[in-house]
Design goal:
302 residues, alpha+beta, six-stranded antiparallel beta barrel, 17 strands, 20% helix, globular
Length: 302
């Protein structure tokens, strides 16, 4: 699957005065802005991050690749807008940004034979959330795209075109269906204003609870240490023609909302009190769905 996402190189200088114990200013900047632990991210490793508002609601997502002396950000957002915003947020810090979106192509391969393909094509074995950089091609093992064993391949267009001739591509609808089936939340759908990432299973991969302060950290910590959230992300089987944004109701009381719909499946938020497998539930418009169960993400099942 070809992915159209922004690519931003982030680099900087060592500071004479370490910021919260972090000498590299570009590392400190990202660490204090994003939800995961950038300071502890080892070279040639990647992790998943969200950028939050002060109230803890998501704005953007970033896969952060550590090249040692710089980071590569892979984001759903417009790269130029991100650079403009980050350039304001860095204030006097010696942090620099380079937009690589037009220079790099990105494909994602996944499925039963994906690991064999990587071994045969690149002679590489890669661990989860690790990447290798070989012959100007970045190859990363990353199951969080759609919840199945898969690999990011990022390179210049000439290299990607060579690989594309050897691969079978699926439609965007098929890609979306696999995401929904595997309960992977998406920015703008499940990860959006009005909902905390803690209400989805992605938080285990996106948020570090011991890294210290970042934007939105106080709101996240307050809810997290109370225990389970009152509502959570649920997978449904569509009985009727469901639309995204439809409210789930019981006795005229709103108890949830549908966030993603693809073919016979939906994702949506539901109050935990009403989660019961195989139980039918109704939207405000009188349409019916069947609860499959609370969403979970487990790499061992990929």
């Amino acid at each position: 699957m070809k992915l159209n996402r922004g690519k931003i190189k982030v680099y900087g200088k060592k500071s004479k005065l370490a910021i919260k114990g972090i000498a590299e200013e570009h590392k400190a900047f990202l660490h204090n802005l994003l939800t995961n632990n950038i300071n502890n991210l080892q070279p040639f490793k990647l992790n998943y991050n969200l950028r939050l508002k002060g109230n803890g609601h998501p704005i953007d997502e970033f896969f952060v690749y550590n090249f040692g002396d710089y980071f590569l950000l892979d984001t759903n957002a417009d790269s130029q807008k991100i650079i403009e915003e980050f350039s304001k947020l860095k204030l006097s810090m010696q942090v620099f940004f380079e937009d690589l979106t037009q220079n790099l192509e990105h494909i994602y391969i996944f499925g039963e034979n994906s690991t064999d393909f990587i071994k045969e094509k690149f002679n590489l074995e890669i661990n989860s959330f690790e990447f290798k950089y070989k012959d100007n091609v970045l190859i990363a093992k990353n199951f969080l795209r759609v919840g199945e064993e898969g690999y990011d391949i990022i390179a210049h267009s000439e290299e990607i075109k060579k690989l594309m001739n050897e691969l079978n591509f699926i439609s965007e609808e098929e890609f979306e269906y696999i995401r929904v089936k595997n309960c992977i939340p998406r920015v703008g759908k499940e990860l959006k204003e009005g909902y905390l990432p803690l209400e989805t299973p992605i938080y285990k991969y996106a948020i570090s609870f011991n890294k210290g302060c970042y934007v939105g950290q106080e709101a996240i910590a307050r809810v997290y240490f109370r225990g389970k959230t009152p509502r959570t992300l649920v997978k449904f089987e569509n009985i009727d023609n469901i639309q995204e944004g439809e409210k789930l109701v019981l006795n005229d009381k709103k108890i949830g909302e549908i966030t993603s719909v693809c073919k016979d499946l939906s994702l949506g938020y539901l109050l935990r009190t009403f989660i019961k497998a195989e139980q039918e539930i109704t939207t405000e418009q009188g349409k019916k769905l069947k609860i499959i169960g609370e969403c979970s993400i487990d790499e061992k099942n990929t």
